[in-house]
Amino acid sequence: MLIVLTFVLIIAAFASIGAYHNHQERVAAEQKKKAEQKYKENLSSAYDLLTPLRTFSVE
Question: How far separated are the first and last CA of the chain, in Å rounded?
């Protein structure tokens, strides 16, 4: 009985580790998506700041 309980606990531990790993991957993907969105917003903002300067460039 003790051996069966030990195996059940080991399997539960591996399942818990697997669930945590999946959670970490999901969090990392979400953070990457937010970082990419922030990068695009910053790039767009920088372009918007530079656009008026282009119209007054010296030729």
Answer: 88
Q: What is the pLDDT of residue 3?
A: 95
* Distance, CA of 59 to CA of 54 (rounded, Å): 11
| pTM (whole model) above 0.85 | no
Distance of alpha carbon 9 from alpha carbon 16, whole angstroms: 10
Residue reference for tokens 């399942």: 15
DSSP state of 56: T
User: What six digits make up the tokens of 43?
Assistant: 């790039």
Residue 24: count of CB within 10 angstroms of its CB: 10
User: From CA 28, how far away is CA 31, in angstroms rounded?
Assistant: 5
